[in-house]
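Reopening this one. Same input as before:
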Amino acid sequence: MRIILTVALIVISYITAYCETGKSDVHKILDEVNEYLNEKPDSAFAVLNTLDISESEDGETQALYAILHAKAEYAVTDTIKSDLMLQQAIKYYNGERSRNSSQAYYSLGCYYFGIDKHKASYAFQRAIDLIPDGNDDLKGRAYHALGSCYYANGNIKEGNKAYKTALTLLDEKAGEGTWKLCQNIKMQLNNDAAQQRANIHFTLFVTFIMLLLVSLGVSVYIMIRKKHPVNEGEIESSDDPLEQKLKEGKQKFEDTASYKILLEIRSLNESELQARTDIDVKEIEDTVLASFDEAYHILAEMESKLNHQDLLLCLYGYLKVPNNVIAFCMKSVPGTIRQRKLRLQGKLPEDVRIMLFS
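Same output, byte for byte:
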């Protein structure tokens, strides 16, 4: 009963005080409500609910009412039921850089916060963009709200950044509500810092374990090698006779002049290769066949459908010779070599294909 009486007296006093000015009675009341809304949101909300905003009121009055009502409603109930009047206010201000225009977008962001975080983020960003200089409190709250949207969407980095910006704008001494807001921001930033430290420690721990395992593996390998040394020039044994002979053939070939020639010309392009008339490609082919003689015959017995050119191409493939150099040595063209390789890989068993061409 006391609240109703107080509201009635306030409304009457507003009408009486401003009856001689050019503003409408409702607009005069809104101006007064705006002055104490932050300190007494309950009283402001009660007064605003008694006002009749009809279509006869001008657009400025209706826009101001929408902003103040949404601000008071959010302060009292922590929610905004409808965005209809806010949308009309935003349309009225038409993107002008003013506190009222910014407040309209801020309240719209509060409305969307529990519905659509992306729409809320857009509204809070628009509020920030439209805030004139000297309105640090509203700007700080908008940055805090924008940061909360980022956190809710899992964007910790941007949320942290927005919270830090909000903290530089808000004045803890401005009031109890602002002080509590600053404490919440500090708590979140401290949690972020603690989580970041924990992530760094975990990464360092995992790295240490990996290095320890690698070190252990190397130590075991060295111990095995000491017990079972491989003599210089000796090829490690393999259960696959083809793989064994390929390794032996490669070692033989690497001691020849033909191998050095292949190393010399492997980086040349097609025109540069054709200019090298001093190279005897038949001698290179003969050296390859001589070095891989046993591997050549094993592969020929395994894959009887392969002709001599196919087998030679397999050996060049095992030596990792580029296609243009193979084409030069086999007196062909790179495109043909690529096609023959693909055809060969389709014919060969998977283990042999991997051994020769991987």
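So the earlier flakiness isn't reproducible anymore. For the record, The chain is about 75% helix and 0% strand.
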